[in-house]
């Protein structure tokens, strides 16, 4: 009888251990994986210094580059970073201040460099990395909104004459992406961004609908990995923003056949 009780207790203990392990793994993934664990064990004042030297290198360039109150700044993460904005928009005042891997927190932390020039316009797109768990782990939409609000408050207080444009976060393609994310969550975030733009009397630009297909996925025409954009994707993004950048009506692309650019795959 005692042996049977011991076996039952061992089975129960093993089951609880397995459940605890599964719960711990799930919790760790939700918090940002090994990065979260590392910074819990070895806390540091600057998380981005540990995992993203690229960010530090880019920031050091931005701090040294010439600044002007005629600057039109594109600010964001890798989606912004990878765009050749000055050439796409045929405007020498356009400057790319995107950094791959950026989250809302990292944008807020490097905002002083952006504000220093008192730019004419800022086009901001950020948030997908927060939802994917980069930096400090997965954020809820409410948490992302709070950091966005802090960013916009800084703009309002420090550069009240700068026109600020909130660009919607882009869709992903769930079937081919290695950066899984639910487009319903992205749509919910974009609703909050639209409300924030109205609250701060800034502009909201719906880029999402320019790049999404009939299922609200990132159209496969515009991506190779389900998250980032190819050349066609950036031309569609340009189409969404160029009238706000150049203060003109939308122009027909010069020297590029519209059939070549906008035909379906």
What's the short version?
By secondary structure, the protein is an alpha/beta fold. The protein has 2 domains: 2-31; 47-262, Rossmann fold (3-Layer(aba) Sandwich), CATH 3.40.50.
Number of domains: 2
Query: What count of helical segments does DSSP give?
Result: 14
Annotation, overall tally of beta strands: 5
Separation, N- and C-terminal Cα atoms: 71 Å
Roughly how much helix do the residues carry, as a percent range?
A: 40-55%
| Rough outline | globular
Low-confidence region ranges:
28-50, 249-263
N to C succession of SSEs: HHHHEHHEHHEHHEHEHHH
Strand order of the largest sheet: 2-1-3-4-5
Structural class: alpha/beta
The CATH class of the largest domain, by name, is Alpha Beta
**Average pLDDT rating:** 82
CATH topology of the largest domain: Rossmann fold
CATH H-level homologous superfamily name of the largest domain = SGNH hydrolase
Question: What's the Cα radius of gyration?
Answer: 22 Å
The biggest sheet, with number of strands, parallel, antiparallel or mixed sense and barrel status, is: 5 strands, parallel
CATH architecture of the largest domain: 3-Layer(aba) Sandwich
Strand content: 5-15%
Explain what you see:
This protein has 265 residues and is α/β, with parallel strands linked by helices. The protein folds into 2 domains: 2-31; 47-262, Rossmann fold (3-Layer(aba) Sandwich). The chain is built from 14 helices and 5 strands. It has helices at residues 2-31, 34-41, 47-51, 53-64, 78-81, 85-88, 104-109, 111-115, 128-132, 141-158, 183-199, 208-211, 231-246, 258-262, and strands at 72-76, 94-98, 121-125, 163-167, 203-205. It has a 5-stranded parallel beta sheet, with helices on both faces. Helix 10 (141-158) runs parallel beside helix 11 (183-199). The longest helix is centred in the first third of the chain and has 30 residues, at 2-31. Residues 28-50 and 249-263 have low confidence and may be disordered.
